[in-house]
Design goal:
By secondary structure, the chain is α+β, with helices and mostly antiparallel strands. The protein has seven helices and 19 strands. It is globular, with a radius of gyration of 18 Å.
């Protein structure tokens, strides 16, 4: 299933995309939660109800008439991985990590798949990173690699947008990775049963129509299942957690001269078998300044 969070008629809820139509689960299966994290927390039974309801639905909304939100409006955690493709390591000139290089993006960076994201007022060094996102579906700890697939609800497309000077000025990278709007994702959560092999997916990123990144998840150094095992060794993974698995070569900072994003640029990221997101870059608006 293609599970979405969408807004229509002034309310936000979850649904299932079928072709060019949306099955509104708030009407097709009214007993289900209307928010994605709560839906995932309801487990396999909720997925079964949603699947049956979407197959039986007699009325739908046009996909073009709804506004797609981030599949997870506020993920409990956004965990990301640095230097996880050999070609990206080569373009950075850094050493291959012996262990996954984990950092986090704040949950407030989650952003819809088609909405503009911000070029911040404090930097002119904003970059893009096309990535496969793993969405956790079961609360879990100490998951062995061979059982990792059991706890994955599905997959999504992620842009790990990065403010490079803020990323590099301290070792933790959190500030440079966590600006509001800097984790566009979607367009939906593709359930794991629809993805035969998450480690054989073509990934492409375009900026203003120019192909910048072109790789395949088979080139991940630490694959999706490695990452679930590694992360769950230290802390509990929860339904709705997102793991951004890393980006291949072709990011803006890797070019000579560098190709950072500016207002007006458009970034499109597509992953075979999952979908694509497209976000324009806009100057950070004044209404982002507020107290209270």
């Amino acid at each position: 299933m293609k599970l979405i969070t969408f807004t229509h008629g002034g309310t936000t809820r979850i649904g299932v995309v079928k072709g060019d139509a949306v099955v509104d689960l708030s009407t097709a299966a009214p007993d289900l939660p209307r928010e994605m994290v709560a839906f995932l927390e309801a487990g396999d039974a909720a997925l079964d109800v949603a699947r049956a309801a979407s197959d039986a639905a007699s009325s739908t909304l046009a996909l073009s008439d709804v506004h797609l939100e981030s599949p997870l409006l506020r993920p409990p955690k956004i965990l990301a991985v640095g230097l996880n493709y050999a070609d990206h390591i080569a373009e950075t000139g850094m050493d291959t990590p012996k262990h996954p290089m984990i950092f986090n993006k704040q949950s407030t960076s989650a952003h819809p798949p088609g909405d503009p994201f911000h070029a911040p007022r404090v930097s002119d060094k904003i970059d893009y990173e096309g990535e496969l996102g793993v969405v956790i579906g079961k609360r879990c700890r100490h998951v062995p690699k061979e059982r990792a697939a059991e706890v994955i609800a599905g997959y999504t497309v992620v842009n790990d947008a990065t403010v490079r000077d803020w990323q590099m000025r301290v070792p933790t990278m959190t500030m440079g990775k966590s600006f509001d709007t800097h984790c566009p994702m979607g367009p939906w959560l593709m359930t794991a049963d629809e993805v035969s092999d998450p480690h054989s997916l073509e990934l492409k990123t375009w900026v203003n129509g120019e192909l910048r990144q072109h790789s395949n998840t088979k080139h991940l150094i630490f694959n999706c299942f490695d990452l679930v095992e590694h992360l769950s060794t230290a802390f509990t993974l929860e339904p709705g957690d997102v793991i951004a698995t890393g980006t291949p070569s072709g990011v803006g900072i890797g070019f000579k001269p560098r190709k950072f994003l500016v207002a007006g640029d458009v970034v499109r990221i597509a992953i075979d078998g999952i979908g694509e997101i497209e976000n324009a870059v806009v100057t950070e608006p004044p209404e982002t300044i507020y107290i209270g």
